[in-house]
Sequence to fold (471 residues):
Amino acid sequence: MTKTQFPKGFLWGASTSAFQIEGGFDEGGKGPATTDIGTGNPDIADNKIASDHYHHWKEDVDLMAEMGMKIYRMGFSWSRIMPDATGRPNKEGLKFYDQLIDYLLEKGIEPFVTLYHFECPQALVDAYGGWLDRRMIEDYVHYAEICFEHFKGRVKRWVTVNEQLIATAAGMLTGDKELDPRKRLKNMYQMSYHVSLAEHKAISRLREIDPEAKIGPVCAIQVVYPKTCKPEHVLAAEKAQELMEFYLLDLSVRGEYPPYVKSYLKKNKMFPKTKPDDEVELKKSKPDFIGVNYYFSICVEEKKGAVNYQQPPFWISDDFDICENDYLKKTEWMDKGIDPVGLHIGMQKIYHRYRLPMIVTENGMAYSDKVEKDGTIHDEYRIDYLKKHIEQLKIMIDEGIPVLGYCPWSFIDVVSSHQGFQKRYGLVYVDRTETDPKQCARIKKDSFYWYKEVIRNNGLTKESIRGKQNG
Ligand code: BG6
Fold:
């Protein structure tokens, strides 16, 4: 291994999720999901066609193979596999994933599957309100069991839930229609508690069904800086990080709430309803790894004034306020700033707290890419972003932090969780507009060729650092 090379067997990959690329929303017996409704704005693309991966999957896998990917972090759509509230699996849905996974394996790419990435089956929301109800726990576990049994031996790494923080915060994802911001917040903590229980039960079932397989959560890592070294700002940042990140990871890994979060939720009358046996279930299992999604860091200051309920639920607190970080360069779509060192800080903290191996499951640069007249896409800003984050990973690994792999977001352009195709993250361009899906043709961006070289060299070389390679 040279100075810049990553350890042998490092898992270079890329990421997508089912609802953001598949499309085919009413094909192959798929049932509706909350995410099928989209933002409701007709000028913003929804996921009904998305990147049309449902019809382009083979071509997409060929592109992955051409890039040399070792692992593909993908998602299953729960309502493609279980379209209604009966819990009966849909053969056509399983068949779609069978052909995709078999072809990935044929090309030597490991499928790394997320069971739940924001898309909640609408049938379960209609039947009993989705995650707000404890019945959802058993339904999720049943879905997980079907997947574990069906794909046993083929899928060897699973993700339980993608970004529990976001998955339970947005009403458009959970189907929660509550308008009162305080009640919505209380609902979020209740739903999240059910997700944690479901996650642990699913992990326990995987240990029985396929003891060889590995499983873990994917967290939206929150790297929180204090505005200054004023102790009150530092304390506010510590609390913010507990409330936005570590409480979920503590539940996933240790099966318990951190003391501050427990007291915070009780003080604010938001502590979820629990049952006496839950504790046993929460403590019974432990994940094998932690998946890390990182885009940017945030900055907080001590709380002053009234609580602002008009912001993302997980930022609502009477202990801190979100503020600007003047040290970081901001761009149109990365308005919190670009901060590769934040990845290092965040992953280091996670490792110090849990001592589990990690894999970067998302990391990427949003931009309104432009196709040149000759059909090329020069996304040197994305190359620069990825390169700087990969550099930090290498430093971490050299310092003894176990990082298993790197899966940038996203392999192909995806429909954003709420902003359509205005901004793009892909290494491969999907030729469509917000309102016209055209043929969804695939075009390799400069970053595709650049990343291919990174994978080929098992790390950054002088050339890849300069970002010079392309087709
Ligand atoms: C992560 C999600 O939160 O961020 C992805 O796991 C999402 O699904 C990504 O697409 C980028 O966010 P956005 O809002 O720009 O799509």
About this structure: The pocket of 6-O-phosphono-beta-D-glucopyranose is lined by residues 17, 20, 162-163, 166, 220, 293, 362, 366, 409, 416-419 (CB under 6 Å). The chain has 16 helices and 13 strands. The chain has a mean pLDDT of 95.
